[in-house]
Amino acid sequence: MNAPTLIKPYDIAEHLHRYTAWAASRAASTKTCRFDVSTGKTIIEATGLHLLLAGPQLLPSPENIDAQHKIWRETAIEAARNKGLVGFGHGVAAKLINVYLKGAFVCAGQELHPHVQALHPPIDKLLLDELYDQDVGGLRAVWAQARKQRWSKFDAEQYQAVINGIREVLTGRPLWHVEAYWRGYQ
Description:
With about 190 residues, this protein is mainly α. It is about 55% helix and about 0% strand. The protein is built from eight helices and no strands. The N and C termini lie far apart (about 45 Å).
């Protein structure tokens, strides 16, 4: 008996895109901004992130990551608005983008590449609570402000303040290292 033929082409890039879009959509959808995986995938595709999956060299350089990340967030926010989503701001956009890139690069064995080391980590309540509780880096005031605002409600400046705090604490180490404080795996 012959093996069945696939009807349409399917490669590892598409497989990775579907998986990371699923994970990112599930992680970024909140009580105040619910969306399904298909919507999250469409928003990700609007940012062009899926076009970067061919390799970490396509990611922005560490010097350019913050500026490009803001562009990705703004594009995602516009795409969400076009889909009729309410409450999809910089915090939700960042979570969608960051979980997608984490799955596609950090957890895919490319964590040593300098462009991957500069990627922003996903920010959520569990991470912010632990950073605050342990007064990581002596930046309790930064973490307190972020907790008060809530990650899903961040505007561009609040989000960047958290990323800057993480960078300050890690002193040149990869940004994904801050996830040593994330309790979500428990």
